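User: Hi! I'm working on a homework problem where we have to compare a predicted structure to a textbook description. Could you give me the structure for the chain below?
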Amino acid sequence: MTKKVWVRKFDGQKEPFDEQKALNSILRAGVNKKNAPLVLAKIESRLYPGISTKEIYGFLHQELKQSGLKPESKFFRLREALGKMGPLDFEKLVAQILSLERFNSEWNVFLQGRCTEHQIDVLASNKGQSYLVEVKRRRNPHRDTGLGEIIELWGRFKDIGESSKNERAIKEAWLVTNTKFSSHAKKFARCRGIRLLGWRYNTTRLSESKTEGLEKILERIGKQKVLNLINSFI
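Assistant: Happy to help. Predicted structure tokens:
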């Protein structure tokens, strides 16, 4: 593809169509390396200036369906499936994921802060260390989780840490979401030592790689097991 086509993202911003990014998405969907360029060519033939990323995903889903890739394409729609979950169900799913990753996890825990009591989505522990886990589920999975959510978590973490009534020492605060993070959210989190786990981004103790985001962890757990977990909530 030689002509540059500008694509409209879910947040309204525009960026040039990225062939490599699209090809990676096709490969992750289960198309083999031989057929992936053919699928990409079909998608590129339908592009037009200002096309939305939602439309591009729709084209890809159509191609997957026509290729008969039902199990793989179902998992490819994982991002959308997570967005359809209720907020509380997503919290429970994250608690189960942490348990599968060898953390002890408690859902819906109340901890006393210096100024007020806080309801904690998930309290995780491993090797004697405890982690405050805030869980944010967005219905639109393509909308970034931003600075506001990180600052809110930071305030809760600090208030709990300053309480003399809280017997459980919290080592770190984590934020887990089904979306990507904004650049401002990442910057503040790095500065304050908050750990993030989202779509294609991870600074938690679950992985040493920032590119092994939530979707890769779910792949590691196993596609059918993850789909069964999600379907039990939806």
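For your comparison, note the following. The beta strands are 6-8, 14-16, 51-52, 104-112, 117-126, 129-136, 170-177, 195-198, 201-202. The mean pLDDT is 85. Good luck with the assignment!
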